[in-house]
């Protein structure tokens, strides 16, 4: 197994690397409000159709999203057994020929654990920046109208 850790890279390059990766790691900062955090990068990871290992609150919004789209696994930061189990399940689902292709030097970057998410799927599209911005606009309009009606 090989783990690549890179410094900051442009988003286009990051998306390309995600699409060529076997497993993606997303972390949620620990602390107050972590349950409600969903990093924007998680949406890109899910859309890349690559399995995701999320480190953060397993009952949090990000973990619920990973589960909803069958995008991978979630484990708390301190849950070593949970992370280990997630990796064991991920490895168990990989094709048996994968290690042979690694040995032979063949490109295995096209392997996908599952079909992932079609970024145009209606259920997934509602989480796009455009759709979320639209929802916020409706909410702000509603708040404005309610405030105006009370004066």
N-to-C CA distance? 64 Å
Count of DSSP-assigned helices: 7
Percentage of residues in helical conformation? 40-55%
Order of helices and strands: HEHEHEHHHH
- Cα-atom radius of gyration: 19 Å
Q: Describe the global form.
A: elongated
Please describe what this structure looks like.
This protein has 151 residues and is mainly alpha-helical. It contains seven helices and three strands; from the N terminus they run H-E-H-E-H-E-H-H-H-H. The protein has a three-stranded parallel beta sheet, sandwiched between helices. The N and C termini lie far apart (64 Å).
Pick out its properties.
mainly alpha, three-stranded parallel beta sheet, about 50% helix, elongated
Write the layout of secondary structure elements.
Blueprint: H1 11-20, E1 24-27, H2 40-47, E2 52-55, H3 61-68, E3 72-75, H4 80-93, H5 98-104, H6 122-125, H7 129-149
Parallel strand pairs: 1-2, 2-3
């Amino acid at each position: 197994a090989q783990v690549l850790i890179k410094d900051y890279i442009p988003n286009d390059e990051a998306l390309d690397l995600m699409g060529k990766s076997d497993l993606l790691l997303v972390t949620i900062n620990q602390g107050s409000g972590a349950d409600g955090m969903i990093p924007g990068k998680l949406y890109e990871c899910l859309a890349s159709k690559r399995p995701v290992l999320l480190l953060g609150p397993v009952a949090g919004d990000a973990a619920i999203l990973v589960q909803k789209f069958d995008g991978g696994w979630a484990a708390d930061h301190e849950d070593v057994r949970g992370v280990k189990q997630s990796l064991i399940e991920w490895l168990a689902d990989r094709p048996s020929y994968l290690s042979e292709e690694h040995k032979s030097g063949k490109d295995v970057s096209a392997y996908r654990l599952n079909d992932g998410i079609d970024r145009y799927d209606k259920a997934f599209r509602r989480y796009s920046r455009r759709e979320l911005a639209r929802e916020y606009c409706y909410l702000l309009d509603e708040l404005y109208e309610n405030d105006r009606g009370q004066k």
